[in-house]
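Technical note accompanying the year-one report. For the benefit of new consortium partners, we illustrate the data format agreed upon in the data management plan: each record pairs a sequence with a structure-token string. No post-processing was applied to the example shown here.
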Amino acid sequence: MGGDWLTLCAAALIGYALGSIPFGLIVTRAGGAADPRTIGSGNIGATNVLRTGRKGLAALTLLLDAAKGAVAVIVVGLIWPDPMPPSMMQLLAGGFAFLGHVFPVWLRFRGGKGVATLLGIALALAWSCGIAFAVVWLIAFAATRHSSVGGMTAALATPVAAALMGRSDLAVLFLLLAIVVLWKHRANLERLLDGTEPRFGGRA
């Protein structure tokens, strides 16, 4: 694990560049749908793309946002292979891919909330953590019908899963990313407390 500063910076830059690709915006423009930044929460994530009424575009956004997180980790691992992956470079690439999605320079640092990208990163760094993320998201969403609850709960479950695996390096990274996910959902948290957060398949 590790590397010189230039290598670490290069890994971070690759991660950020891949993570900052605004697939939500690209997909909606290509599909002739409304700009997701003008509706709902105004972010470019899959949940907000769903508010355009185009379920297929939302699903594609979800897949692409997850894929770019995974690809960042995989690509850096191929460029700088490590006998005991994931390497420090891959952790950096994953973390910066997440930051690129949430704070893309191309969109004045106004991106998505990071849930799908965190899933892709978790699957690439430790597939069992990614599975734990997906299972917890499904359970939380099924119980509440709130996508925000699913995302926040799954994000918090990921560092717990890593800690149970004895991977403190992954646990620290996932915890930091989970904190950002919670911060990006602060408006959702306020609506949940007020009882005004919209449910899927029902009224707000």
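Partners are asked to follow this layout when depositing records. The chain has a mean pLDDT of 93.
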